[in-house]
Amino acid sequence: MQKHQESHGSSSPAPDPAPGSGTPSQPARPTPADIRRWRQYLADERAEAAVYRELAQRRDGEERQILLALAEAEGRHEAHWLKLLGEHAGMPKGASTRSQLLGFLARHFGSVFVLALAQRAEGRSPYGAEPAATPAMVADEQIHEEVVRGLATRGRNRLSGTFRAAVFGANDGLVSNLSLVMGMAATGVPSPVVLMSGVAGLLAGALSMGAGEYVSVRSQRELLSATLPTQATLTAAPSLDIEHNELVLVYLARGMTREAAEHRAAERMGLFSCDCDPSLSLQPEKEQPADNHETVGSAWGAAMSSFCFFASGAVVPILPFIFGMTGVAALVVAGVLVGIALLATGAVVGLLSGTSPLSRGFRQLAIGLGAAAATYGLGLAFGTMIV
């Protein structure tokens, strides 16, 4: 570790090393670049601590304690930079744009978006390449990413079913109806026919998506419900033949080891007056929590989200035709509007998944416009054949 630290020496001062912190000793005077960088770190640590405290106010129990612990850790990092800066700390500096955005979202919106952004921010911490940061601080940031990932996952699970239907519905509406409009326009049919085709595509697609999502989610929930244990072991156990105890087979089929299955069966048969080995008592008959299917979402919620978001996406390509535009100009405006919408939906997916919003947005844009261009080319070919 010492060799690693010496290889990252700096002309910047450091506080007296805390026991086990591994902070190398450094020359006394920081450079102007050091001061500017450290002041930015200080501002960002303060802003991130404020974000975690803001989120903690909206939570209780374990999540609240986790968020407050994260804020406390950011406070320790803040103290490190204050000590390094000393008299150079100056007036409080504004946080980075990223940190300010996190603060704004924490104050006005749900925690899922904030935690997804915070997860990405923790994963891109500059401390790994900062000689003045202690190894403990670098490790803190790495662990913070995993902590925030865990918290963000809880929120993602709560909305994943309906959110999936919403995102897929919006994107399907944008891409399919733009492709339909482009294909029809390329054949040379009049603009009113293109508009009517777009309206028909909107209604047919929205109804189809809504019905499909309802059946899909309903079927998935029914399949999951069919896997849950029943109370049959409780009612049938007293009448079973001890010599041919088929209750053991029940627990073996549920994935228990033979030892655990025999122990559990003996409990159910009343042969144990106490639970002598709780580790073997997996309690498979315990009623599942009400939110067992939260990651799937409700069938009606998924259907309505899919219908509404498909319709909201599908209406975008026909807006120019609704307002009287015709020809190439209408197609260009439709393409631009759909492109903006695809960038937005892709960015939202990127934010919630903790990845780059920009890359996800451009991916959605490339896929959508690529499909529309292909359909336009096919429309030109069919139009020529018809003529």
Brief summary:
The chain is mostly helical and 387 residues long. The protein has helices at residues 2-6, 32-57, 61-85, 97-108, 111-123, 135-186, 191-226, 232-236, 247-253, 258-268, 299-314, 319-322, 327-353, 357-386. The model is unreliable at 1-27, 227-234 and 280-296 (pLDDT under 50).
Looking at this protein, list some descriptive labels.
387 residues; mainly alpha; 70% helix; flat; disordered N terminus
Account of the protein in words:
This protein is mostly helical and 387 residues long. Helices cover 70% and strands 0% of the residues. The chain has 14 helices and no strands. Helix 5 packs across helix 6, helix 6 packs across helix 11 and helix 9 packs across helix 10. The longest helix is centred in the middle third of the chain and has 52 residues. The protein is flat and about 75 Å long. It starts with a helix and ends with a helix. The N terminus is likely disordered.
Roughly what percent helix? 55-70%
Number of H- or I-type helical stretches? 14
Cα shape: flat
The Rg value, from CA coordinates, equals 30 Å
DSSP strand count: 0
Strand content: under 5%
Summed over residues and divided by their number, the pLDDT gives a mean of: 74
Q: Provide the low-confidence segments as ranges.
A: 1-27, 227-234, 280-296
Written as H for each helix and E for each strand, in order along the chain, the element string is HHHHHHHHHHHHHH
Main sheet summary: none
Query: What structural category characterises the helix and strand content?
Result: mainly alpha
Determine the N-to-C terminus distance.
Answer: 77 Å
